Amino acid sequence: SGLSGMGNNLILFDDVPFYWEAWDVMNYHTQKIHPFYTSPSSSTLFISSFIETGPLRVILKVENTNPLNQCKITQFITIDCLSPTIKFKLAVDWHESHKILKVEFPFKIRGSSTPPLARYGVQFGNISRPLHQNTTWDKAQFEVCG
């Protein structure tokens, strides 16, 4: 298991709800995908700088503005030698309507259960969701809060 492609991809999806704004996410929203930016090298508004460069921790500040809608995203990426994780903190100045912003880290996942499940931590436990969409029940469980 590991990344199956480039991680930390900012992606916009169209959000056209039937009934309620921002609450009624439909499962077909993933059919229209728009990258927030194609790549840092092709964006003229991409700015990056180091906030901290110590011997034990590095913090990188990455700023990007979408030229179409002037939405600005500032990311603080922290790599700490005492932690097994990389931390991402985002500040978003949002000027969109009917769009969903997601951050994508594509993984190759093989589940050990039958059927394979993804487990998401929530306030008082966890929620399991299938890694496939073979049945209508599986397709209806596309939203997770983790």
Output the keywords.
mainly beta, 4-stranded antiparallel sheet, 3-stranded antiparallel sheet, 146 residues
Characterization of the model:
This protein is an all-beta fold and 146 residues long. Helices cover 3% and strands 44% of the residues. The chain contains 1 helix and 11 strands, in the order βββββββββββα. It has one helix at 136-139, and strands at residues 2-3, 9-14, 33-35, 47-53, 57-65, 72-80, 86-93, 99-104, 107-108, 117-122, 125-130. It has a 4-stranded antiparallel β-sheet, with no helix packed on it. The chain is globular. The two termini are 20 Å apart. The relative contact order is 0.19. Mean pLDDT is 78; it is low at 38-44.
